[in-house]
Automatic annotation (TrEMBL), chains A, B:
The active site is at residue 105. Pathway: Pyrimidine metabolism; UMP biosynthesis via de novo pathway; UMP from orotate: step 2/2. The gene is pyrF. GO terms for molecular function: orotidine-5'-phosphate decarboxylase activity. Keywords: Decarboxylase, Lyase, Pyrimidine biosynthesis. The lineage of its organism: Bacteria, Bacillati, Bacillota, Clostridia, Lachnospirales. InterPro entries: Aldolase_TIM (IPR013785), OMPdecase_type-2 (IPR011995), OMPdeCOase_dom (IPR001754), RibuloseP-bd_barrel (IPR011060). This is Orotidine 5'-phosphate decarboxylase. It comes from Candidatus Galacturonatibacter soehngenii.
Amino acid sequence: MINKLIQNIQKTNAPIVVGLDPMLNYIPPHIQKRAFAEFGETLEGAAEAIWQYNKEIVDAVYDLIPAVKPQIAMYEQFGIEGLKAFQKTVNYCKEKNLVVIGDIKRGDIGSTSEAYAVGHLGKVQVGSKRYSCFDEDFVTVNPYLGSDGIKPFVDVCKEEKKGLFILVKTSNQSSGEFQDRLIDGKPLYEHVGEKVAKWGEDCMGDSYSYIGAVVGATYPKMGEILRKIMPKSFILVPGYGAQGGKAEDLKPYFNEDGLGAIINSSRGIIAAYKQEAYKHFGETAFADASRQAVLDMIADINQAIGR
Amino acid sequence: MINKLIQNIQKTNAPIVVGLDPMLNYIPPHIQKRAFAEFGETLEGAAEAIWQYNKEIVDAVYDLIPAVKPQIAMYEQFGIEGLKAFQKTVNYCKEKNLVVIGDIKRGDIGSTSEAYAVGHLGKVQVGSKRYSCFDEDFVTVNPYLGSDGIKPFVDVCKEEKKGLFILVKTSNQSSGEFQDRLIDGKPLYEHVGEKVAKWGEDCMGDSYSYIGAVVGATYPKMGEILRKIMPKSFILVPGYGAQGGKAEDLKPYFNEDGLGAIINSSRGIIAAYKQEAYKHFGETAFADASRQAVLDMIADINQAIGR
């Protein structure tokens, strides 16, 4: 799947990923109204609004981008109905040949991590049958529990040729509270980065490992160091745009081959129509605003990284 | 909810929690057969088997215990159908007046943690209506992202009078890989423990905080230190029994009032009928085996802690 991600990036010349993190207040009123007219102001109605919103955005941008990253929390908050919309979104994006990164940030002890890995990347056994459930291509994983919480994910990735992005340095303001603390003279995130490089060693695609890392755009100096610590790991970079990360800071996240990083934008794309720059599209053409925002983001990043 | 947890513990004289972590291979063949006869070897069939298994165990033990801890991964691996069984289990246990600790180990940046908190502990807004979705009483949370990933959970807990158990020192073998590393002369888990104590300060129930911690039974020396660092935090202790934690090691997790800790056993209870000691119950009376295992666990722990 890392090979497919790279192919998709090369085909689109766009090292970006669109975060499908729908909040109800991003969704234009006409879509909410239509969904609520059919299902009432219910969880089902909310899920339908999310799905219609996602579908229209995906239809408008899929030819420009290599991948999407649905954030499962935004669906899970609407319970079972929300998770159905998550599943529908994953499946639809895969039909459109997009690589799907499930932003699930799971992680637990061995047997439990195995269950998550099976449910999101692998196949679960039921009697004599096997089923894929959420079936993303990559998922994000939390490393706090150490190797035996990660290994079951790695095992399933090997079997299914899928991949991981392991949290190393997150984009949020208080990420440094634990991640930046010095251990033997090096911040915790570097120690985690070293482990990511090691975990990824025997899961190599053609040029990069299946096992990648999450490093926030908001910490470019750290990105530079981590790039060197994990030369064969793809870096998923959240925090561009709405969270404050700038394109000119992104160069250090890439290798000299112009690969090695994929930059996420969520709100900046899916709710583009709410921004001053794209307001003229209007609410009904929100997906056209998203398309323009994708084009602008690609240009912004490619210029900054000299691609 | 911390007050209710303490009341339930005092009423049952049992500082324990039963982990409802069903694996299909724990479920006796007659239950699987019945479910598959009705729904086929499908995800729905697996979910039905899990639900029937859980229900029979809960019916057999609910009067003996204060709380249950369903591990969501074991349900999530069966996709939407599995999560429906999770929800059914949560609701059923609450009907039985059990405190429900959702072992979900979520944690993300601010707005995303908020979505998880809303979906699992709070109410989500849909138009003019508000809905509770998974509606557990407590959830487990991962601290790797720092305060701004925890705060949205704390805020929802304050509003709903619910609670958290934040991962401090986990029970698994490689938990020390990051958690034990020394920072300013103290292991990371102590730094996290200090934060837990601080986060919990303004969320006090009558005698304990709503904000608790997870500390594995497999590390009693660390438990002793953490007990002192977080005097007002309840400690959820996994790792007793099947994972190797012994009753005599559990004393340091408790305060002098005999409270402050709740010991989890999952496999040891729900799959008791598979153990040598309870084999004589037979597969069809698996729930009676679970009841006996609960009684034995309570006696074992109360004796060890001198309760």
